[in-house]
Fold:
Amino acid sequence: LEAIYAREFYASFTATHGSIDGLDGWYEEGSVLELRAPREVVWGNGTKAVFVSWDGVNSTEPSTKTIVRGPLKATAMYRLQYYLEILSQQPVSHASGWYDKGSTLALDAGPSIRPAGEGIRYRFGGWPGIGEEERIEITVDAPKTIKASWLREYLISFENPVERSDAWVAE
Structure:
C-alpha cells in the first residue's frame, strides 16, 4: 500500500465591482483555471464598470486561463464610467456617452453665433445651472444631463428717410 499526495493551493477571486462566483477553493498544483469576468457590469442608473485587467494574473482579457503554481489571489479590476447626456439644438464638442469617473470633459459650444438662413441665427445662451461661457470643464463624478441653451434670433431692419439700422431680436 502506497500513499500518494498531491500538492494543493488555495485560490480566491474577487472583483472591484460585481462578483466572481464559484471559483474559490483548493486546486491541485499545475491545474489550469479558466477565469471569466463580465466585460461590463451595468447598473440601471447611468453607471457602469468596464473590465480593465486581472490583478494577480497577468491578463487584460476578462476571460483567461492561469496555471496554479502556488496560493493564488486574483481580482478583476474595473474602472467606473458615468453616462452624460448632452442636449443641444446645435452641435457642440462632445456627444452623449459614457465617460470615465474622475475625467475632465471640456465642453465647447463655439462658435456662439450660428447662421440658420436668411435673417435667422442661433446665439449661444449658456449652460443652464453651470455657466454662461462657451467653453466649460466638467468633472465626471456622476451621471448627468447637461444642456446647452440656444436662442433663435431674427434680423429686424428699421428704415427711415435718414438712416437704416438693424437689430437681432430673440424669438
